[in-house]
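Before the break, one more example. Copy the sequence into your notebook; we will annotate it together after we see the structure.
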Amino acid sequence: MVEAAMGGPLAGKRRPRRFSLERDVGSEQARSLAKGAAAAGFLSASRGVQRRFRALSRGGEARRPRSGKMARGLKKHLKRLNAPKHWMLDKLGGAFAPKPSSGPHKARECLPLILILRNKLKYALTYREVIAILMQRHVMVDGKVRTDKTYPAGFMDVVSIPKTNENFRLLYDTKGRFRLHSIRDEESKFKLCKVRSVQFGQKGIPYLNTYDGRTIRYPDPLIKANDTIKLDLETNKIVDFIKFDVGNVVMVTGGRNTGRVGVIKNREKHKGSFDTIHVQDATGHEFATRMGNVFTIGKGTKPWVSLPKGKGIKLSIIEEARKRLAAAGATATA
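Here is what the structure looks like once it is written out:
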């Protein structure tokens, strides 16, 4: 092109146009040529040309070559505006949020370790400080050391920090947010797991699947789906279990009533749809939710785990305002 512009040997010559079968010969003639070439065994051409001839001989359009773009799997980042609301991240704190790693809990139902150490417990101020704490193997989840900064801790998980002699259990408050509830050493040795399904494997070996991805073989034959098992975190064995029956205390883990605690009063079965569970809390208020949102936490009215402040009782806006005024008046008189 430069030589043509400057009057070189290519001056006045045009670049030869690539041959196109449909444009230069015509679609009807191209199809007839393609049929003849197919009958004669058109083997000397390249694979792309042969594929084009076959498409034309069948009466269709030739497929365009693929573009050079290919999929690269899932996105490895998460924008802060798309993060779950219960993480309570401020909008002006940056463009991105920590994307949870693959693990026992769903991305929308977990709390990454970096948010636990930096935003909840305030043991770190920056991202690098969280990495330094985790790499020294100071944090344990369900009795195992975790060094992944975005490891997804979820409902009922026990977060332990042996250096400070602290144990926390992840529970919900009545507004649907995760609450790091401080527990004693005796309570940190077990956790409650909801049973998703009970099946039989090879050679008729029974096993059950829990909500946090565990598979336990040879469970008690009385354990069924939606029941709750008490799991020893040291031996990973079932210590006891709670049946999903009317009269047992439950905590709601999904929907608008997340975090509320009450006793099962009734169960409505709907074929082809979701079963409905009617729950009554300690103040006498009743509400209904789906069966998949209910987690049994105790037999009768006594839960097997300690509950955070409020005991799972949801207050109305007026009740919350009165409570704040009473607390303010008590501090003023003191």
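Residues 274 and 298 are 23 Å apart (CA to CA). The helical segments are 2-6, 21-25, 27-40, 47-57, 113-120, 127-135, 317-333. Try to locate both features in your own notes.
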